Amino acid sequence: MSRILVTGSTEGLGRAAAEALQSAGHRVVVHARSPGRATALRPLLDRGADAVTGDLTDRDAVRRIAAELNDADPLDAVIHNAGVWRGPAVMPVNIIAPYLLTALLPAPRRLVYLSSGSHFGGQPTVQGVDWLGGSAGSYADSKPFVTALAAAVARLRPGVRSNAVDPGWVPTRMGGPGAPDDLELGHLTQEWLATSDEPEALTTGGYWYHRELRPPHPAVHDEAFQDRLLAALAEETGTAL
Ligand SMILES: NC(=O)c1ccc[n+]([C@@H]2O[C@H](COP(=O)([O-])OP(=O)(O)OC[C@H]3O[C@@H](n4cnc5c(N)ncnc54)[C@H](OP(=O)(O)O)[C@@H]3O)[C@@H](O)[C@H]2O)c1
User: Fold this and answer.
1) All domains of the chain, ordered by start, with CATH?
2) Which residue of the set 99, 113, 143, 207 is catalytic?
3) Can you give the pTM of this predicted structure?
4) Could you give the angle at which helices 12-23 and 183-195 cross, rounded to 10 degrees?
């Protein structure tokens, strides 16, 4: 049995992953942006899930969440699932929050980051990015960042299994009702990477789609790009990995 944080577990893929992990007997820590949104988590809480709340666009809230988790029972895994498709929250939620949580939570041995097929269309450059989200960020640009973060953590934290997952275009609130891919397959890989001891699931630095390794955008494994990204994120947040 593992103890696993799933960020953004009120809806969509995060909700489905948290429910599946709990049904499989794992201890789940669910996450909502506010106490009001946490009411959506009632069925999971009634079955014994722990919860943290905080808006991931608020860096102080992210730091408080990390402090609360560091004071609680140790986490075995984190699924960095929360994400937004458009608007000023894109960079804060899709890359700053997972970066800060990764930096501030050194203990979990398994880290899973939600990437996207859209990352192939993103610009892997840290020049001119509005990390604070004063202007709308590009979703496609945020996903090479988080995919490269997963690969950099795999390189820099020996013993930690860190992977990125493209869940496919699936019918959640973000994906829309007409999304063509399979919602169940869309969260299975995250659960498998977070908990399974099958040899393949113990890979690190992978980019996965439906439990198959795929080659990501070439920038993802470019160590010079990873280092530029980590330096920019450390400077922006005042927190080094
Ligand atoms: N669906 C797809 O087709 C698809 C494809 C590729 C990648 N992905 C990735 O998969 C992940 C999950 O997407 P999804 O389709 O499940 O999206 P979703 O249904 O819109 O759910 C997003 C989750 O993130 C939470 N969240 C968003 N902004 C937040 C904030 N500021 N603070 C705290 N929580 C916040 C949401 O909370 P609220 O309910 O309170 O808003 C919700 O729980 C994302 O990283 C996304 O980029 C999805």
Assistant:
1) 3-237 (3.40.50.720)
2) 143
3) 0.98
4) 60
